[in-house]
Amino acid sequence: MASMPFSFAALLDRPDIWRGDSLNRTGTPTVPCGFPGLDAELPGGGWPAGALTEILPAHEGIGELRLLGPALAGLSKHLPYAPALAAAGIDIANLVVVRTASPKETLWATEQALASNACGAVLAWPRDAKYAELRRLQIAAEGGRAPAFLFRFPKATGEPSPAALRIALGTSDGGLAVRVLKRRGAPLARPVLLPPMPPALHGKTHHVDRHSAAPAAARDFSARLVHA
User: Fold this and answer.
1) 38 φ, ψ (degrees, to nearest 5)
2) What is the pLDDT of residues 163-217, one digit of tens each?
3) How many CA atoms lie within 13 A of 119 on its CB side?
4) How many other CB atoms sit within 10 Å of the CB of residue 41?
């Protein structure tokens, strides 16, 4: 029996094949981030589900939680800070906050939350995590369907990471400047600019994002887990 002729072009047209010089548009599950300009630059059009996303803000409280607000609201209508939930009319019964006493406990709690497959989304603030530890989290995330967000210090930008998506946050004209450091696709040279918060909400931003000068006790939440 004669074999079918091989077509390299046909191979590249397959939806499950990703070319390294283009943005991955395969059927990987995603959660829309709620910002069209950013969704357009993310593989699959949103935050990757069943994978790690690293967020590296220039400083704590820059707006990192506001960035996730639309996606979390779409999942189960929560934000990871109770006063903001009440202000938004959101039921906090679907929110679990886990306080940990050490970086090791943070990683353990995050891994257990991801492996449970019972969470709508998992948010964690690991400190000084090593590549092997992050790899364990990535494997745990792959076994479920929840998007996982790790908030790390800017110094981690130059460190290797197994995260599918890595973004850095800065400010620009009162809004957020999102730099995509790593994605499944071609590099993104320019930042994605997100509009400033509506004036009516400016007075509530301190309920959502923590200022870098917040007391140590307020910043001692090494892991925060949000589930549906």
Assistant:
1) -80, -40
2) 999 999 998 888 899 999 999 887 788 999 988 765 444 444 433 344 333 333 3
3) 30
4) 19
State which amino acid sits at residue 81. Y
**Hey, which residues does 148 pair with through a beta bridge?**
52, 122
Cα(209)–Cα(63) distance, integer angstroms: 6
In terms of Cβ atoms closer than 10 Å to its own Cβ (0-12, 13-18, 19+), residue 220 is exposed
Q: Which residues, 6 or more positions from 140, have their beta carbon under 8 angstroms from its beta carbon?
A: 110, 111, 114, 115
68's CB contacts (< 8 A; 6+ apart) are 33, 79, 121, 123, 149
Q: pTM higher than 0.85 for the full model?
A: no
Alpha-carbon distances of 83 from 39, 100, 125, 175, 208, rounded to whole Å = 28, 21, 20, 22, 8
Helices (H), the chain: 8-12, 36-39, 64-76, 82-87, 103-116, 131-142, 205-208
Local structure of 162: helix, strand or coil: coil
Helix, strand, coil shares of the chain as percentages rounded to 5? 35, 20, 45
In one letter, which amino acid is 82?
Answer: A
